[in-house]
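Handoff note, outgoing to incoming analyst
You'll be picking up this chain. Sequence as last confirmed:
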Amino acid sequence: MHVHGYLWTGEKTTFDKESIRRPPPSLAPTATSPDEVQQRYREAVAEWKTTDVPPIETALWLLKPPRLIRDTWDEPKEAAEWLGQQLTEHAPRFASEHDQDTTRLAVLTASAADRLALGEDASLGFYLRGTLFLSVALVACSPNRADPELPCPMS
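Most recent structure output, in case you need it:
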C-alpha cells in the first residue's frame, strides 16, 4: 500500500456543485429522462476527468488524472506529516478560530496517521476567510480499503 495526497482550494460554491464531484453514471440517460438528469450526465462527462474539485467520496480521487496527485508516500506517518504541513500553512486563513487551534490541528494530523495505518483514507475540509474552501485528502492505494476495485492512478 501507498498513499496519495490531494489538495484543493477554491470557491465554496464550486465545491457545492455535486454534478462535477460525482463520476458519470455507467449508463447514459435516455431521451425520455428528465432534463436535469440529462444535464447532470453531460456535466459529469465533460468535467469529471478534467476538474480538480474534490470528488464526493474520498476514494474516487483514484479515478482522477495522476497530475492532481500532490505527492505519494509509502509510509502513513510521512503522508500525515504532509497533511499537518498543509493544515499549518493554511491555518491563518481558516474562517474559524477553533479550526486554527494548533493542538486541534496536531490531533487531526495524528488521527490521519492512525487511519492511514489501518488502510483507511483521511479527508479534511475547512472554510477559509471569504468564500473559499480548502480540501486536503490522503488516499490509500493498491488497494483502497473503501473500494478495493479502484485502480491506482500511478500503476
